[in-house]
Amino acid sequence: MQSPAFYRVVAEDFQAVDEIIRQQVVSRVPLVQKIGDYIISAGGKRLRPLLVLLSGRALGYQADDLRLLAATIEFLHTATLLHDDVVDMSGMRRGRATANAQWGNAPSVLVGDFLYSRSFEMMVELGSMPVMQILSHATRVIAEGEVLQLSKVRDASTTEETYMEVIRGKTAMLFEASTHSAAALAQTGDSQRQALQRFGDHLGIAFQLVDDLLDYRGDASELGKNVGDDLAEGKPTLPLIVTMRDGNAEQAAQVRQAIQQGGSQDIEGIRAAVEAAGALDYTARLAQQHAELAIACLQELPDNAHRQALIELTRFAVARSH
Q1: What gap in Å lies between CA 251 and CA 182, rounded to an integer?
Q2: Phi/psi class of residue 60: alpha, beta or left (left: φ > 0; alpha: ψ in -120 to 50)?
Q3: How many Å apart are CA 202 and CA 292, to the nearest integer?
Q4: Confidence band (pLDDT; 50, 70, 90) for 90?
Q5: Residue 193 banded pLDDT, cuts 50, 70, 90
Q6: Do residues 233 and 153 touch, judged by C-beta distance below 8 A?
């Protein structure tokens, strides 16, 4: 299958980033190397390094260190995935067994630490204090977002406001850091830097909203993870929160009980309830609104193929089925 146009416009850069990632995961400890290779070879969309490349090139920044920044962001993201899968006790990601399912929790956590540490070595190599400030701040906010989410597991009283705080931290922050750090590396003016920062935030929110929507409307073979995973873990995501708020008494009670008990025994019943309550349509509309806000931010950037690719990427993020 041909890759979308928003990949093709930075195809050479993207290939170079892939090579940097493979070079940087090298370790003298065989198990570190093995787990690192395993999780990196799983691929995925690599949207965050793509955002770095497209943002920097859209600003006219041509230096090769943009590729190192993109690889650094992917290492940060991969480290969070290793840790998340342990916390969530996930058995499947990107269509295959998670590292913790293959090797156990302890090695997964420690290799996650290795990738975090390596990413900071790469940041130092970049030699940009503004970039280090953005990425070190982002790692703290992401950790806080994950802990906030953990504290709300099986809490059926979680509000939409708290949910938005969680996803801004755990997901949108790294999207924002990707676009913001590219602008910082390019040493662009305040208006473009702030526009790219806001763009990343809105895009990240839209992306996570669609992820949470697909947990009920998606297909496991396309998603590369089990449908209903969030419900099984007792996570009160927006479709569930809206069903409890806007659905009828029976729908609200059904969802509340499912959150409090965890498990996905009645996933089909819950899917029917969130659909009938209009919660999935509500989530989809909110994702679309954030996508439109993201695209509006790009007016500050020069009109070129890379800006157009960012617009197409944003549209893809809300239209995707996996």
Answers
A1: 45
A2: left
A3: 9
A4: confident
A5: very high
A6: yes
What's the angle, vertex CA 315, arms to CA 62 and CA 14, rounded to 5?
30
Token couple for 285: 């509309």
Estimate to the nearest angstrom the gap between the alpha carbon of 304 and the chain centroid.
Answer: 26
Q: Count of residues for the chain?
A: 322
Give 37: exposed, middle or buried? Use CB within 10 Å, 0-12, 13-18, 19+.
Answer: middle
pTM higher than 0.85: yes
So what's the pLDDT on residue 221?
A: 55
- Which of 24, 8, 1, 137 lies closest to 70 in space, CA to CA? 24
Q: Give percent above pLDDT 90 in the chain.
A: 82
Two structure tokens written together for 18:
């892939």
pLDDT of residue 1: 41
Whether the Cβ atoms of residue 215 and residue 307 lie closer than 8 Å to each other: no
Partners of 93 in the β-ladder: 96
Under 8 Å between Cβ of 140 and 77: no
CATH number for region 5-319: 1.10.600.10
The token pair at 168 is 């801004």
Residue 152 vs residues 42, 97, 111, 210: alpha-carbon distances, Å: 30, 26, 27, 20
| Whole-number Cα distances in Å, 233 to 12, 51, 87, 90, 260 | 40, 30, 10, 9, 10
Contacts 24+ apart (CB under 8 A), 122-128: 122/24, 122/68, 122/71, 122/72, 122/75, 123/72, 125/68, 126/65, 126/68, 126/69, 126/72, 126/185, 128/184, 128/185
Residue type at 114 in one-letter notation: F
**pLDDT (tens digit per residue) in 124-159:** 999 999 999 999 999 999 999 999 999 999 999 999
